Amino acid sequence: YEGVTTIKEMGRSIHEIPRQD
Amino acid sequence: DSCIQFTRHASDVLLNLNRLRSRDILTDVIIVVNREHFRAHKTVLMACSGLFYTIFTDQMKCNMNIINLDPDVSPEGFRVLLDFMYTSRLSLRDSSIMAVMTTALYLQMEHVVDTCQRFLKTSE
Hints:
The complex is a heterodimer of chains A (about 20) and B (about 120). By secondary structure, chain A is mainly β.
């Protein structure tokens, strides 16, 4: 990602699979 | 141009994979260690272990869904390493560190072996 401004996102990125349905 | 890097993405993905394992969703192999059975995902095993990478990239073996490990392998050592593969956390107790190291050597997980050896040296 040379020359591209990278913004760091500290939060969750994807859904969380529950321990059981 | 910009890009957003989600810094915790790898750990979020790993947590979800471990949730799939604990709910036995899409697990595709049983590893038998001295009569103990461990269900797992081949892709995670081969991503973490040189031995499983060799097994599951072998055309003759990649479709096997039950793998019996060497009878000398300790179930406790394997359990610790399987949890490590799915959590990045390696639990080390005085009572099990040698079993973990021997099992890691067998599974061709050299970085774990090196780290355990350094841990042993510093704790001596």
